Amino acid sequence: MKEFEIQKYLRKGRILPVTPRPLPPDCRDFIVIPACDELEHFEAVCNSLTALEGAEKAAVLFVVNHPQGAAEQIIRNNELLIGKLSRTPFFCMAAPDLTQGVGEARKLGFDAVIAALPPEALEETVLYSLDADTVVEKEYLNSVRNVLLKSSAGAVAVGVSHQTGDTPEMEHAIREYERYMDRYVDRLRTVHSPYAFHTIGSAFAVRGDVYVRSGGMRLRQAGEDFYFLQAVAKSYGVTELTAKLVHPSPRFSHRVPFGTGRAVEQLLNGEPLNEIPDEPFLVLKEVLNCGHSGKADFYGELPAVARPFFEELKFQENWARIVKNTPQSQLAVAFDRWFDGLQTLRFLHFLQENMP
Fold it and tell me: Which of 44, 69, 242, 274 has its CA 20 to 30 A from that of 349?
């Protein structure tokens, strides 16, 4: 990768110092872990990381952060966590008063790695995204690297199984949520969507050069993983490692407006999750078949029930511009980039609400 590409990317953000020592420029495996008020999980996470096969070759960077206006107890707990980290082989970055959530914390950590490495190293560097309440299997590091670097894809989504719930009710809720997410991805896979992979912040890894060329981590309170991996999928593809190597906490949290914590809380309150039935996926399959046909003009072949959604997005007008600037051999790829993971989800919800 060229030096000017890296510098152009880094100029768009800010780089915080890694203390008390800089990241090793000869390392090629970097695990980045945002941590906000995570003292209770620290020992288990440390034990998991030190037990990794190949741990001696990897660098672990904790981004200890809190949002603007955080309670004094959270700030104090983070100070204690930084003190504990100073007595470990791990690296630490203090990131106080963040305004853009966990996405900002992940970005600061990943960007610090990018800034520390020589440009020619990025293609063989793997950035691993974990969370501070998450433990991993001992083969996690080697398995992820092997799958990613043997694949043509730019990132890998890693299989997840949450830790055991503290109560029977929580255990039931987290397994139901896992089944809910697995069913969604399985049905996307069945209809050959290129976005058929889990998007979980604690369960993916990306090549260093792909991270930069995909624009880096998104600055969001939640969903930063979804939007980042969607960007990677559009240009490089995302592969899967289905082995359940990552084990997040099953806790529910009010830190983010949606995601695992909110879903678990909803289930604990007796509210079912809004699962999309099978029929919209059958329509999605027809739409994808049309989009993947390679034809410049396939609008008339779309299922009638799908057309109002495409009309609302002014598809014909937008698609005409895409066709004008795209070789015919690349039209299927261009359609997938336009009809991305977010549009897919919106389309399925549209059908859920409007199909008879």
Answer: 242
